[in-house]
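As the next step, I needed to go through one protein, both as residues and as discrete backbone shape codes, included below for the reader:
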Amino acid sequence: MHSLLITGRLLSRALWNGITNVSTATDPSRQRKTEPQLVSAVCGFSKRRKIQRLIKGQFGDDAWFTAKYKTADVLGSSTACVVILNKENSTLYTANIGDSGVMVVRRGKVIHKSEEQQHYFNTPFQLSLPPPGYQQEVLSDQPDSAITDNFPVEDGDVILVATDGVFDNLPQSLILNELVKVQGERCATRLQMVANSIAWMARNLSFDETFLSPFSVNAFANGIDTIGGKPDDITVVLATVAI
């Protein structure tokens, strides 16, 4: 049985093949004086309410896994968001399946935000490998169901890649207020501080039972009377484009 990791790689490979096709179509004689680079930081928390020590590079539980043996089979499901920067043409290529996502901010404005994919409320598209005999009972989407996009980036652009634990608990205005703080930032330490801040806010509001979160707003729109945040996996990957 192929592991879920291999299934995820198919999504990355399909996106990369598209980038390769675009790259080979450009003039090979054209030389760039400088290539864009990404300065990045990561932070995250699990769903557990117990406060965790903040660790640089930590991800939420749903965002990664390890297998004891390299040959181990992995069962389960996951949303996926893949972002690749093509340095040859300064273009960002994205593929997103489910309710994780990517947001890009330029000069204080959101210029790109990935589209969420849901079968129905609180049931996102996802790559899955169900246990044998349960294939018909489990929603299972294919990598080619992902929404793909590409657009040119500029020096100073801010890129946020995050799980639904961020977008379900933080209104876009709060996220934007944090992202503008690192416009054009080239210091990884500063990026880490803002990544930590976004993750902390999302985590704290997820346990606030009185907060009118984006998740509760969407719940109301779907006929569900609820209020408060949504405790969930929280992972933040924050980067800026430096040219």
User: Anything to note?
Assistant: The longest helix spans residues 4-24. Residues 4-25+35-242 form a domain with the Phosphatase 2c; domain 1 fold (CATH 3.60.40). DSSP finds five helices and twelve strands in the chain.
